[in-house]
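Input record (one chain):
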Amino acid sequence: MPRKRILPDPEVCMGCHLCEVYCLTEHSRSRHVVRAHKKELPRPLARVRVEEALPLTLAIQCHHCDEPMCVFACLTGAMQKDPETGIVSSDPERCMGCWTCIMVCPFGALRRDTAHGVVAKCDLCAHLVTPACVAHCPNEALTLVDVTP
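The corresponding structure, as predicted from the sequence alone:
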């Protein structure tokens, strides 16, 4: 069964940060771009971030690794990999906020959600056909691809 992954292309990313904006919006309570950014407290957290090392910019999000170090290192079992889809997820009910997963991620893709004391990571917008970051990237610097395990 093919698995979905997001591939960034630093050659066409212009650093507009729309992937962050729409990721944050999709993971907000309101799912409304203005309300999510201006009115919601605690403020929602984007699961993707744009790193700039001019002239290149690159969106960084979870790679849903074949052998995810974050899953192996998680002390509580909050980090899990779905054997069917290959999606690595975090269970906020089980996460104790030790940040071990963040320290071992080779891509720096996991984020601290200090407002809730848990880790925040890309979930590929599992409830959507196309992740919000991919759908709103104006240069198609993020693409959703099928990979075979």
